[in-house]
Amino acid sequence: MKKLIYIFLFFSSFLHAHVIEVGANKPVKSIKKAISLAKIGDTVLVHKGVYREGNIVIDKRIVFLGKGYPVLDGQKKYEVLSIKADSVVVQGFKVIKSGYASLEDPCAIKVYNKSHVIIQNNILDDNFFGIYIQNGKNCLIKNNTIVAYGKEEQQIGNGIHCWKSENLQIIANTISGHRDGIYFEFVTNSVIWRNISTNNIRYGLHFMFSNDDAYITNIFKNNGAGVAVMFTKNVKMFNNYFEENWGDGAYGLFLKEITDSHIIGNKFSKNTSGIHMEGTNRIRVEKNVFEANGWAMKIQASCVDNEIVNNNFIGNTFDMGTNGSLVLNKFDTNYWDKYEGYDLDKNGVGDVPYHPLSLFAVLVENNPSAMLLFRSFMITLLDKSEKVLPSITPDNFIDNSPLMHSLPL
Amino acid sequence: MNRIIKIIFLDILKNKIILAYTLILAILSWSSFGLEDNSAKGLLTILNIILFTVPLVSILFATIYLYNSTEFIELLLSQPIKRKKIWLSLFLGLSLAMVLAFFIGAGIPLLINAPDSVGIMMLVIGCLITLVFVALAFLSSILTRDKAKGIGIAIMGWLYFALLFDGIILYLLFQFSDYPIEKAMIVVTAFSPIDLARIQILLHLDVSAMMGYTGAIFKDFFGTSLGLLLSFSLLCLWIIIPFFISLIKFKNKDL
């Protein structure tokens, strides 16, 4: 038994990881030097200070720790941190002023084709791209604060940019002022959870060709054009907030060519369009709240087999908008605050169907200037007669069992 | 002058119609605000009152009142009082009564249930619309001596502003939809006080939808403080000009 312990102790001396400290009063002054000294599994502990060392490359499996948020300055010339090894941990740094280039994408922190990288508790300020995962697997990006001050789309990169990756976890980051807050292209089996993406120039979340992902409990507020999810299958969008995305091309949630996905429990409030759907098939929109939007939903005629059930539509200027007369979607048991029917049998479901598409919504779709006449008495009259005898609006655009009372969502 | 205003004001208050008007406004506003826990429906009801009921009642009541008080006016004219003074005090007395009715009937529930920029905006605009249509009533009643004709003109005027004008705009919008007409449309709205009022309220009530592309143009114009000032001064012009024309006519009229 004793022998066994000695043998363990003997081998554990090989396992022992060193801590290499970097700082003004420490033996090692430079981060690059420390990394070159480090062996696999060592920890490089960087103390408080400002480090201007150009491009720092981490090419072996180490833990890269900052103490008291040491500043890594890219001086607007370099990519600051390049991670070219598996299982690297980057934690506790303040990374500022990465370079700007139009051919390459200099980042604050970039992961090159590696897996199991953890990037957490960092502050990123005024970078071109924030965190860039290129062809990464099983990476975790957590608790980072990413701020930039972009003015134009082409002058600034994305906050968290993920390309051709899988099994990523993007958790509890705060992103603002970038082009897109979070950008996903060819990223699969990943989760975006509890992030706050606000005041970005283009999209809060931009999502393309990324199947089997979920984004849950995020806040997307006041972004230039809201959130865009495009060309994707099997996306789950749960419990997110989409707020105050204003403008003609701005949507709370923009869906283009999406199939077999779920939109459940989200809240859309004060957007020009809550959800805009184009070429979208077999989506279930359930238990969402649409509140004070210009258009709660715009469902283009190219959408097929979507189910819109058990949602609350409250205080929207228009409940629905569409661009054609073809309706291949199902609306059922929603609460519409504009519903004027009655419920004689007192089962909580209105006895006459509700037409969520108003004549005026169709008029405005064809001729946006007509918005000038909204709420005019004349228009109200036209709307009422259209509701009784639909002629311009498609007569099968109806909710057959509208609820009398709002759902507790 | 103050005495004449006081006499007219008290005379109108004695008239039960204005009390009934106040009561109806109050019932409509309170019940619509009490319908749901959010104020959206109540605001919409009051918007419709401002755009529909207030103009109708103001113009009809004022016109009929003026025709009915022809003898009183003649009596006043026999006194050493300037004609301008008589006409102005008639206008002020009537306006005061109508504005007070609107304020008590719709204004108080507004201020209690929606004490924000929308509520205050609606209150101010409702009062202005009342004044505009009282002024138009003065114009229509001075145009002809025939009571039926005068009331007819008043009703036509109301129909034109409340319904026809928007119909014409809708027609124009679709006839010229291939042209960039947004700016021209802004100018056209100045020709109807009801539209001016409606757009100002709309910019506060439906801000999300009005932020769309063309909406943004309207918002850029009407939503700025300059646009706000301009549309308020246009509404004031809608009070001053009809009244001023009627005043000139009254001065020169052979009674």
From TrEMBL, chain A:
Record-linked Gene3D superfamilies: Single-stranded right-handed beta-helix, Pectin lyase-like (2.160.20.10)
InterPro entries referenced in this protein's UniProt entry, alphabetically: Carb-bd_sugar_hydrolysis-dom (IPR006633), NosD_copper_fam (IPR026464), NosD_dom (IPR007742), Para_beta_helix_rpt-2 (IPR022441), PbH1 (IPR006626), Pectin_lyas_fold (IPR012334), Pectin_lyase_fold/virulence (IPR011050)
Pfam families in alphabetical order: NosD
Signal peptide: 1-17
Keyword line: Signal
Domain Carbohydrate-binding/sugar hydrolysis: 51-185
NCBIfam families per UniProt: NosD_copper_fam, para_beta_helix
The protein's name: Nitrous oxide reductase family maturation protein NosD
Organism annotation: Flavobacterium psychrolimnae
TrEMBL record, chain B:
Keyword Transmembrane helix: yes
Keyword annotations from UniProtKB, A to Z: Membrane, Transmembrane, Transmembrane helix
Pfam families: ABC2_membrane_2
GO molecular function, one term: ABC-type transporter activity
Ranges annotated as spanning the membrane: 12-33, 45-67, 87-112, 118-139, 151-174, 226-248
Cellular component GO terms held in the UniProt record: plasma membrane
Source organism, top-level taxon: Bacteria
Name the record gives this protein: ABC transporter permease
Gene source species: Flavobacterium psychrolimnae
